[in-house]
Amino acid sequence: xxxxxxxxxxxxxxxxxxxxxxxxxxxxxxxxxxxxxxxxxxxxxxxxxxxxxxxxxxxxxxxxxxxxxxxxxxxxxxxxxxxxxxxxxxxxxxxxxxxxxxxxxxxxxxxxxxxxxxxxxxxxxxxxxxxxxxxxxxxxxxxxxxxxxxxxxxxxxxxxxxxxxxxxxxxxxxxxxxxxxxxxxxxxxxxxxxxxxxxxxxxxxxxxxxxxxxxxxxxxxxxxxxxxxxxxxxxxxxxxxxxxxxxxxxxxxxxxxxxxxxxxxxxxxxxxxxxxxxxxxxxxxxxxxxxxxxxxxxxxxxxxxxxxxxxxxxxxxxxxxxxxxxxxxxxxxxxxxxx
Length: 339
Fold this sequence. Notes:
- The chain is of the alpha+beta class.
- The chain has 10 helices and 17 strands.
- The chain has helices at 23-27, 30-46, 59-73, 77-81, 108-117, 145-175, 184-187, 205-209, 261-266, 327-338; strands at residues 6-12, 15-21, 49-53, 93-95, 123-127, 193-199, 202-203, 216-219, 225-230, 236-239, 245-247, 255-259, 276-278, 289-290, 293-300, 307-308, 325-326.
- The longest helix is centred in the middle third of the chain and has 31 residues, at 145-175.
- The protein is globular.
- The protein starts with 5 loop residues before the first strand and ends with a helix.
C-alpha cells in the first residue's frame, strides 16, 4: 500500500486542515510527489492552512532558534529599542508592545482606533535578507558575544527557510497543474521576512475584563505563504467556514503553513487566504497568569522585482479578478496601514 500523504490535523465547524507528510515530496516517487502536491493545494483551497511533518527542517535547529529568541526578548528594553523597526520599505527591526496592530481592516484610522482600544499583546523582531541594498538588518552583534551568536543562528535559519520556500512553492505549482519549477523564478531572491514573536505572560484578568482583548488580532497574512513554528503554549485560532474561530493546536515537530493574500490574488482566488488570530491559551492554569508564548514566523514573498498577475489556468474561463501588482509595492502598502 502506498504511503498516506495526508491525515487530519484539525477538524471542527467544517474547517479541515490536513497534516501532510512532506517527506513524500522530498524523497518519494513521482506519484508520491503528486499526491502531496494535491494535498497541499486542496488544503489551501479549502482551509488556507496545512500542517507539514517530516519537512526537512532539523528539530535541533528550530530549538536553537527558539532559545536564542527567548534570550533576545529577555534583554533590557533599551537594548531592544536601539534596533527599532523604522519603515515599511525596510521592514526590519524590533517592534515593542502595542506598536503594531494586525487587523482585518485596510483603513489606517480604523486600525489606529482599534490599536488604542485593544493593543496587540506582543513584541517582535523582523529580519530580512542580508544583501538588500540600503536596507540592512538591525543586530546587536557589536554589543556582546550573545549578540554575535544570535546573528549567526538567525542568518542560518533564514537561509534554511528560504530553501524551504522554494520547495513548498514547487509542490504548489505541481498541485495547480503548472511546471514544478514554475515558481523558482519568483523565490530565488529571498525577499522574505523572519519574524520572532514573544507574547508576554499576562494576568488572566486582562482577557476577562475585555472580551475583545487578544494577543494578536484577527487578520490574514500579506505575502504568498507563511511558515509558523509554534511552542507548546498554543493560542492560534483559524476562522472556520461557519464564522467561528477554531484552535489550531500545536503538533510537535510540524510547521503550520498558510496562504497569504498575495497568493490568493495570484491564484485568482482559487486559493484561500484565511483569517486567524492569537488568543490566550486554552489549557487551564492554576495561577492567575497566562503563560508567555513564543513563535517564529517566516513570511514568504515573491521576488520584489516581480509583477504578480493571475496564474495560468486560473482566469481563462472567468477572467482576471485583479490587475497585476508589483510584489514589493503590495507589501509596503499593507505594512504601512499596520504600524
